[in-house]
Design brief:
This is 14-3-3 domain-containing protein. The protein is an all-alpha fold. The protein is built from nine helices and two strands, in the order E-H-H-H-H-H-H-H-H-H-E.
Amino acid sequence: MLTIVLLIQQSPPPLSPCLNFISFPTENKGFADTMDTEKERDRHVYIARIAEQAERYDEMVEAMKSIAKLDVELTLEERNLLSVGYKNVIGSRRVAWRILSSIENREEGKGHEQNVKKIKDYMKKVEDELAVICNDILATIDHHLLPSTKSGESAVFYHKMKGDYFRYLAEFKISGDHKEVKDQSLKAYEAATAIAASDLAPTHPIRLGLALNFSVFYYEILNSPERACHMAKQAFDEAISELDNIDEEAYKDSTLILQLIKDNLTLWTSNISEEGGAGEPQVR
């Protein structure tokens, strides 16, 4: 599966040299605490930026988790850094799991049972890592990010993330566990969709990204291609009808996601008409 995340690159904010010399009286302790929190946020954001450039995504995630645990609403840049960090940490494991799954099927077809057992053991190791990462971000969202959220945009972003990471769990969970994470993913996507419908324009990149990933959930996890196509087409048509009113800053992001939705619709309708077919959907 191709995962595309748009990055908003900004230069790290300059740290004022005078901050180290400010002495706060006791009665201004609240103000001092606020200043300390802001300095801590700046430090973690800078670490996350350089960790991303160094492709050390585990440290990037830890830096952004430290900000989340401050129980403050994240800025747009902070949200993106958090999302990009986790996407890269989970992405390599998802790719590894799919490769191993393909090898397992191939070895099984050849009747190499001993090799199949070894591959299953290896896959279990990767699955355990996937579960730890997914449960980590899901707990961070529930305990820190959503309770600190004041804007509809942020709420949609985090509910969408919950839907995405429960969907990742559903990719490899089996039996009862599969149903549980599948239901949780659906619930999160539905919550995000309800807020997006009232708070975000049809052309908003987060709303479009939600529709893109929610439709992939219907197609891949719920095995409902008709519902997936309906959802994707509705989001596409609603956005196209208002494209002339789109915010200039959001135009590039929105048109990119619209193209991904269109690509999925083309792939899915082709597969439905052919009763099968190859290809993987695009997600954000």
